[in-house]
Amino acid sequence: MAKVRFIVTGSNHGYRPKPVRRKEILKPYDPTKTRPLGIPCIWDRLIQQCVKQVLEPICEAKFSDNSYGFRPNRSAEHAIAATYKHLQRSNLFYVIEFDIKGFFDNVNHSKLIRQIWAMGIHDKHLIYVLRKMLTAPIKLENGTQITPDKGTPQGGIISPLLANIVLNELDHWIESQWQEHPVTLNYSRNRENGRQDKSHGYRAMKKTRLKEMFMIRYADDFRIFCRTKDDAIRTKIALTQWLSERLKLEVSEEKTKIVNVKRRYSDFLGFKIKVCPKGKTGIGDKKFVVRSHISDKNLRDKRQKLVEQAKKIANPSEGKTEKQEDVINKTVTAKKILTKRAVQDLAQNILLENYSAGDFRQVLGVNVFDDVTWFNKESFEKVLQYAPVFAAMECGDFSLVKNITEEFRKAEKKAEYRLGKLIEAFNPA
After folding, report:
1. Rounded-to-integer distance, Cα 255 and Cα 246, Å
2. Burial zone of 73 (CB within 10 Å; 0-12 exposed, 13-18 middle, 19+ buried)
3. What is the 3-state secondary structure (H, E, C) of 17-86?
C-alpha cells in the first residue's frame, strides 16, 4: 500500500499511469473482425481497483434498477428474467434492439467527468486521477504511442463502472418517460408492506399520448419494450436523437431494429427470445408465453469450439511419439470436455464419419439422424449413457473405458456390454 500511495500522491509530477498495451482480439461471434483490448500494467490495475472500491458504493445508490451489467449481486440471468416479465406478464411485444457504434471507444471524457461530479463525487484529487486514467497513453502493437481524447480502454478494471456511469443518465431519462413520470407517481399508491403500487399510475398514463416504454440494460447492450409499433417507432427516433445530443454517441442504423416477438426472435445476451400463444384466457383473448433458445451466433461459436477440441483429441500436437502418452493426454482432454454437446460432436466425428448410421443403430440400438437434428431427439439421452465407449474409441484404447470420468462409472456394466458388441461388430475375427 505504501507504493500505491507513493505512485498516486507521493511523486512530484503527480499520478502518471504507464502506457496501456493495446491488443487486437477476435470478436467471439465474428472471427473476421477484431476489437481493441487495453491491458494496463499491474500497478495501474491495482490503483484502478482501489478507485473502484471507493466509487462503487456511491454510484450503486444512484444507479437504476433496470441496469444489470457488471454490478454487485446482479447478472445476465436477472436481465433475462426481467425480459421474460415484460414479455409474458406485461405483454410488451415490440422490442427495440439498440446497438451503439463502438461505445467504449467513443465515451466523451468531459461528459463523463461532469456525470461523476453530478453523482456527488467532488474530491478533485480523485477526479484528477480518473482523468489521468482516461488519457493514459496507448501503446499500439507496432510500438507507436497515441494519447486518446475519448473512450475508455476495454480490459481496465474500472471501465465497466465508468460505462455504467455514462449510461445511467440514459436509464433515468427512459424511466422519466413512463415509469417515473409525474403522472405515474401522482396516481401511485403505497401498499401495506411499504412498496409502491404504480398500477393506477400506469392506467392513467395510458389515457395520454405518451410513449409507453420499459428498458433492460446490460452494460452497453440494452433493449426497449413497447406495447405498440407506433410507440416503438417514436421511441427509436427519440432515443437515437437523445443519445447523439446528450451523450455524443452514434447508433448503428444497420443493427438497430424493431422486432415483433410474436413473429420473429429477438437476440439478447446470447439467447433468442420469442412469444408463442398458449390457450385462451377469455373470449378471443390469447395468452402468450416465452420461448427461448441459445442464439444462432452463440450456438455456432460453441459448436466450433467443441469441434476444434474434438479434433485436438483425434490429432494430438507434435513431439509426442509414445502411443501410451498420447492416449493419456487424449483421455485427460476427454474428461474436460465430456458434456452433452461434446459427446454429440465426438459421436459424429468418430462414428458417423467412419461408419454408416445403420451400423450405429445396429450396434447401439439407437436411431441416428442427420447432424442438425439428431441431438434434439430423445435417443440422444440413451447415447449419453455410452459416452465412455465413444471417448475410449477416440482415445484409441478400449481399456480406458472405466477410467474416463466418475460420472459414468455407474454405467460400467452397460458400457462393457456395449463395448463387447462394438468390438464384435467393427473388429470381426
Report:
1. 21
2. exposed
3. CCCEEEEEEEECCEEEEEEEEEECCHHHHHHHHHHHHHHHHHHHCCCCCCECCCCCCCCHHHHHHHHHHH
The Cα 180–Cα 66 span in angstroms is 12
Q: Rounding to the nearest 10 degrees, give the CA dihedral for residues 139, 144, 146, 151.
A: -40
Strand partners, 35: 25
Contact 292, 270 (CB under 8 A): no
Residue (of 375, 404, 410, 407) closest to 391 by Cα position? 404
Rounded Cα–Cα distance for residues 310 and 346 (Å): 6
pTM score of the predicted model = 0.70
φ, ψ for residue 238, nearest 5 deg: -65, -40
Q: What is the per-residue pLDDT across 33-87, written as a single tens digit (0 to 9) for each?
A: 888 889 899 899 999 999 999 999 999 999 999 999 999 999 999 999 999 999 9
Under a CB-based contact definition with an 8 Å cutoff, are residues 212 and 226 in contact?
yes
Task: Tell me the per-residue pLDDT of 275-289, one tens digit each, with 9 for 90 and over.
Answer: 998 865 555 567 889
Nearest-angstrom CA–CA distance, 230 and 395: 59
Grid cell, residue 199, equals 398500477
